[in-house]
From TrEMBL:
GO molecular function: 4-hydroxyphenylpyruvate dioxygenase activity; metal ion binding
Single Gene Ontology BP annotation: aromatic amino acid metabolic process
Cofactor(s) needed for function: Fe cation
Reaction catalyzed: 3-(4-hydroxyphenyl)pyruvate + O2 = homogentisate + CO2
Cofactor remark: Binds 1 Fe cation per subunit.
CDD domains according to UniProt: HPPD_C_like (cd07250)
Entry annotated with the keyword Ribosomal protein: no
Domain VOC as annotated: residue spans: 209-368
Name this protein carries in UniProt: 4-hydroxyphenylpyruvate dioxygenase
Keywords: Dioxygenase, Iron, Metal-binding, Oxidoreductase, Repeat
Domain of life: Eukaryota
Amino acid sequence: MTLKMAASLRRLHHIAFHVRNGDKLTNDLVNKYKFNLFAERLTSKARQVALKNGLAVFVVNERLNLAFLDKKGQVNTLLNEQVHDHRGFETFDYKNIRFEHEPEFLYDVCQSYAVNTACNVSFEVNDVEGSSKRLRNQGCDILVPPTKVQDRCGYVTYSVVKSIVGNVSHTLIDRTNYDGDFLPGFCKINNAGNNVRSVAVGNSCDISHFDHITYACPQQCTPEILEWYERMFGFERFLMSRDEDVDEGYVITGDSIGLRLTAMQFWKCSEVGLKLPSHNKKQQNCKFVVAESLPQQERNQVDTFLEQHHGPGIQHVGLYTPDIISTARTMEEAGVEFVSPPPAYYTEVGKQKEILEAGHDPQLLSQQGILLDAEVENETPQVRSQDQTTNKKKHLLQVFTKPLFSEDTFFLEVIERRGASGFGEGNIRALWRSVQAYMECQKQKQAADETKVVKMQV
Ligand SMILES: O=C(O)C(=O)Cc1ccc(O)cc1
Ligand SMILES: [Fe+2]
């Protein structure tokens, strides 16, 4: 009976990328998104860097090939000794836990993925061994068995399991016996020259945490994914909107959009049988959104992701900010490119009124491409117990970046919630249209470039 239990997750620890050019992504995250580069692991085979803004932590993994044969034919590396000293972990057996010696990537799997990708979501758990055992008994693929890593600040145990979604894996980490800044094997990076969190007053770029992670999946895969996350990690369904059908998900159609969204979430300390009292539900955790396109569609952003990413995976991550105007402004000034909603979005009478009622300036939102949706009081069942004393409308503000890599795949979103815990249909439609317009523009550019090449050849 106990062996069939789900693994209980404490909190999301980090999201990891595997990319060809780690410097490019790291520099963008530091300079444009104002993340703070705070820890690094460097070996002859891999570079792993950790960046944070608030509780949102990204790890950028890049495979290196710094090993070479010296004149005597011996394998050597371009790294200096100091780097090796910092790795400081040993190899021995203890209570059936395997102590790895120099894996290529720590806290991750050695992915040889064809394109740049965000593909690992790491969770903190209390009991890595027990959780891994339970997951294996449920049929989950264990990619890295429970492994202990230590340095002078203590030790952590981790395992990596394969998700049912494309190339996504989940690392489970117990860091209760660790006192360092990030994880053993990483060394702290001096913050000089890096970003400090707040810039000038009114110009801050503070992200507090990951709001949601959105998966792009093939048509009709959603039920299987929901079932898997429920069985493996005890995830619960989260209704995104009042208009959502529990069986069908949140289906948005018409006006060249055909999208099915379904969301789920886990609760902190989601021990099976131990449900949080409803007043605690305010402490909601990162949600997981599953997006699939509907049949009979023209080329669309979900299918384009699947094609260019070579399969399902993480399409975007929502970064929560308490002040989207300031965060979007700071990012834009630093060079972040956001997709633009159709100009008519901000001049439409109903939307203008909604924006003004929310205390915002339509022109300002328009300049930054920020979308605003109003949520009627008590619109989603999950928020019924909150804010009963206020009678104000709840709002959701979002802005979406252009893809971060050369492929039309992964992008980031900045989101501010003013009481609204769901997802607004107006915003989703506007986002869909913005991305479609961007893709169309890219296609035309590409066609123009190809014509140029042909002309030059002639
Ligand atoms: O609205 C959001 O933030 C979502 O995450 C929903 C969503 C998912 C996938 C899309 O291609 C467009 C919108
Ligand atoms: Fe989103």
